Amino acid sequence: MAKLRFASPPPPDEVEEMRTLFVEIAETAAQSGTRVALLVGPNKSSVYPEFLPPELTPADIRYFDAFAQALDPIPNLTFHDPTAGFVRDKGTEGELYYRTDTHWNSKGAFLAWAGLLKALGLPVPEVTFSPGPEYEGDIIKGLAGMESYPLHSGDNWLFEFRREFELQRRGIPDATVSDSFGAREVVTNSKPPSDMTVWVVGDSFALAVKPFIEASFREVHHKGHWRERLPRLAQDLEAADDKPDLIVVIRVERTF
């Protein structure tokens, strides 16, 4: 709530620490011709402020803006914040976040991913969406303890790819950590639109993006949670015998 109201600006040393980390990653990646991208998952309140209580009116300046201004100019880092596009398109695209969950739904995840691919100049998988069943998210029971809260349709989307392909998965042997990122694994696509190898580092917002990432590239390495992997990502890249063509970091706005 303090961040929402912009009660105080981010500490300059935290902003500089984040900038320095991404500079190190981007510079190390550039040495092997690897591109780096950061996809930000907007806070739900950044996209739907109209549903906040009146006493929680967001400030005109986002807490995250200081980090965005520091990260956006870094060479070899493609920075994509889909917030403005979400706010513009939410009236025509339908619900982009679950009503009863803190995360974006599959359509929101796809629109964010498509925006990043366009910024990178890469092909976007063709996807069709249809309304899905009512969705019970993480808020009503897990966070609010509301056992009988009524659910409504319209905020859940089923998707189908127009290109047929097969995926093969193999686990990463040393990946024993279980967290919100999901499985550490390598996924290969039999008929990708882009013949690239990609590393993915993220958080729980990466889960909904995962199918669209796997539909986009020949080989995807889901490396793990950014809290675990980001601080050593430059070192991991230096040590890797086979360098990826692209590294994608997915991180929700509220963690900055």
The largest pleated sheet is described as:
7 strands, mixed
Kindly state the number of beta strands. Answer: 9
Strands of the widest sheet, in order across it, are 2-1-9-7-8-6-5
Radius of gyration: 18 Å
Number of helices: 9
The stretches of 5 or more residues where confidence is low (pLDDT under 50) are none
- What percentage of the residues does DSSP assign to strands (E)? 15-25%
User: What is the arithmetic mean of pLDDT?
Assistant: 95
Q: H/E order of the elements?
A: HEHHEHHEHEEEEHEHHE
Share of helix, binned: 25-40%
How far apart, in Å, are the first and last alpha carbons? 14 Å
Query: Helices and strands: which structural class?
Result: alpha/beta
User: Can you tell me the overall shape?
Assistant: globular
Written account of the structure:
By secondary structure, the protein is an alpha/beta fold. It has helices at residues 12-31, 44-47, 65-71, 83-93, 106-120, 139-143, 206-214, 226-229, 233-239; strands spanning 35-41, 77-80, 127-131, 157-161, 167-171, 185-189, 194-202, 217-225, 246-252. It has a 7-stranded mixed beta sheet, sandwiched between helices. The mean pLDDT is 95.
